[in-house]
Amino acid sequence: QQPVQSPQAVILREGEDAVINCSSSKALYSVHWYRQKHGEAPVFLMILLKGGEQKGHEKISASFNEKKQQSSLYLTASQLSYSGTYFCGTDTAEGRSQGNLIFGKGTKLSVKP
Amino acid sequence: ETGVTQSPTHLIKTRGQQVTLRCSSQSGHNTVSWYQQALGQGPQFIFQYYREEENGRGNFPPRFSGLQFPNYSSELNVNALELDDSALYLCASSLGLAGSQETQYFGPGTRLLVL
What we know:
The complex is a heterodimer. By secondary structure, chain A is mainly beta. Chain A contains 1 helix and 11 strands. The longest helix of chain A is centred in the C-terminal third of the chain and has 6 residues. By secondary structure, chain B is mainly β. In chain B, a hairpin with a 2-residue loop joins strand 5 and strand 6. Chain B starts with a strand and ends with a strand. The model of chain B has no long low-confidence stretch (mean pLDDT 92). The chains are: A mainly beta, B mainly beta. Chains A and B meet through strand 4, strand 5, strand 9, helix 1 and strand 10 of A and strand 5, strand 6 and strand 10 of B.
């Protein structure tokens, strides 16, 4: 089951904040966040694990609510370089039976000067 | 730079043909995963290879097959190409089996167009 990301797209001015949400109908072992710029490879941002452990970039913050099966990515004081499409990848029992993460459709973030 | 490379960058094929896409993983990474990314969509898992053995497969037909070699290179083969196979194909490498605590490092992708 593919996770649902919201919003689908957001436009910000430099310096503004944004929250990107990822919601799953299945129990989650972990959530992975990636950013993809147009024509480029997805770049790893963060992994959030059950129990509160996080691995990733210090300048990016995120939360993982295991009970609600949701994760949120917090982008504060946005910069032009934050523009891109953000994907969450969920680690679920279904995904593990296949062997991998299940990615959402993405949230397109555009930061304007 | 993730240290993962893919070739070719772009490819045009006609329906019914066969195609081979190549990936070179980071040295030391035992796992390579292949994804299909349609325009405006997230990456969709095709399959994963761990130490040269297939170790998980998504909802893709058998005409999608792969190989992983001891030198950290791998291939994705697609037979009997269909128009819907047009997409960006990404490979990603990781130290261990992908998922849970493993970070995946993606290559830049191969954009395949089937006419």
